[in-house]
Amino acid sequence: MKVMLSAFVAIAVIAIGSNMILMQAGFSSQDRTTGSAVRID
């Protein structure tokens, strides 16, 4: 049971960490597909 709970915590940490890293790097689909003539709020 301990191993399964620690695996769930590890999955959550990896998911949150990768989301933060990708948002800082500018790899979102919004950043990649918009041009200079498009206004996005």
Q: What is the compact description of this entry?
A:
The protein is an all-alpha fold and 41 residues long. Helix content is 71%, strand content 0%.
SSE topology sketch:
Elements: H1 2-25, H2 29-33
Could you walk me through the main structural features you see in this protein, from its secondary elements to its overall organization?
- The chain is mainly α and 41 residues long.
- Helix content is 71%, strand content 0%.
- The protein has two helices and no strands.
- The chain has helices at residues 2-25, 29-33.
- The chain is rod-shaped and about 55 Å long.
- The model has no long low-confidence stretch (mean pLDDT 83).
The number of distinct β-strands equals: 0
**Spans of at least 5 consecutive residues with low confidence:** none
Strand content: under 5%
What's the rounded overall pLDDT mean? Answer: 83
Q: Over all CA atoms, what is the radius of gyration?
A: 16 Å
* Content-based structural category: mainly alpha
Q: Summarize the biggest pleated sheet.
A: none
In oligomeric terms, what are we looking at? single chain
Helical coverage, percent range: over 70%
Shape: rod-shaped
